[in-house]
Amino acid sequence: MGEFLGYAIRIVSGWIADKTGKYWSITIVGYLINLLSVPALALVSQWQIAVVLLMIERIGKAIRNPSRDAMLSHATVQIGRGWGFGLHEAIDQIGAMLGPLIIAGVFYFQGGYREAFGILIIPAVLALSILLFARFLYPSPKDLEIRTVQIKTKGLSKVYWIYLIAVALNGAGYADFPLIAYHFKKMATVSEQWIPVFYAIAMGVDALAALLFVYLFDRKGFPILIFSVILSAGFAPLCFLGGFYGVVLGIILWGIGTCAQESVMRAVVALLVPKEKRGVGYGVFNAG
């Protein structure tokens, strides 16, 4: 349900962003909800409230992402779509790698989940501070994209919808990490303490692969995207059927696939959608 809300609502938030032009305001509200709901788990004593906070965290992500990606599409026009989105993904995944390592460190020093979630208020506050500073420096991201774009008045193009179908099929065959982590714990494939470390490994692979694949994408185009999707497909049998070392390889392939979804696939959308419709374009793309 959390994942469904986290993607389905993006259609609405993307449409509102394009309609109002309030990309920064929507992005900031989404980040506030998204980032603060996780440390709030440290204050929870009932699982029902924890579930609500998890839902709220996904909703915050749904609110922020189409507007954020639309602004990124304007900011990346001069350095290359692939490289711009890949650089964003790499930096994003460095944070996603450090977060689980912080959690693992808390466990190592005999802390529990309450302390682990509570300490995440520090990176949350830092992230919000940097976001507000970026808002001050670049109040109108659309101005960064000077190149004239022909606007299609009949809506999103046929090529966009074909691409969306392909992306949706790829998403349908991809397991989110919470499902993989649940399998690890239930089948005792790896110990509980190793699960956040494995996630950190996947995020590290994602960060490195993002820079490599988007560099190649800007030069070779769609074949790089196709290759990354085929390569990452091997994660499923390795993660769900393999032993410890098979799981390690599976997690590496899962990280490569996540890189393709979060960098190269997003970069392609900016090439298929005029800038006036990027909020809707990314909202529908993420929902698909």
Describe this structure in words.
With 288 residues, this protein is mostly helical. It has one domain: MFS general substrate transporter like domains (Growth Hormone, Chain: A, Up-down Bundle), CATH 1.20.1250. 78% of the residues lie in helices and 0% in strands. It contains 13 helices and no strands. It has helices spanning 2-20, 23-37, 47-75, 81-108, 113-118, 121-137, 158-172, 177-187, 194-220, 222-232, 235-241, 244-272, 278-287. The mean pLDDT is 88.
Major sheet attributes:
none
CATH superfamily: MFS general substrate transporter like domains
Instruction: Please give the share of residues in helix.
Output: over 70%
Shape: globular
The total tally of domains equals 1
The helix tally amounts to 13
**What is the CATH fold-level name?**
Growth Hormone, Chain: A
Percent in strands = under 5%
Amino- and carboxy-terminal Cα gap: 15 Å
How are helices and strands ordered from N to C? HHHHHHHHHHHHH
Instruction: Tally the beta strands.
Output: 0
Which structural category fits the helices and strands? mainly alpha
Using the 3D structure, state the CATH architecture.
Up-down Bundle
Give the oligomeric state of the chains in this entry, treating copies of one chain as homo and distinct chains as hetero: single chain
Radius of gyration from CA coordinates: 19 Å
The stretches of 5 or more residues where confidence is low (pLDDT under 50) are none
Average pLDDT: 88
Instruction: Give the class-level CATH name.
Output: Mainly Alpha
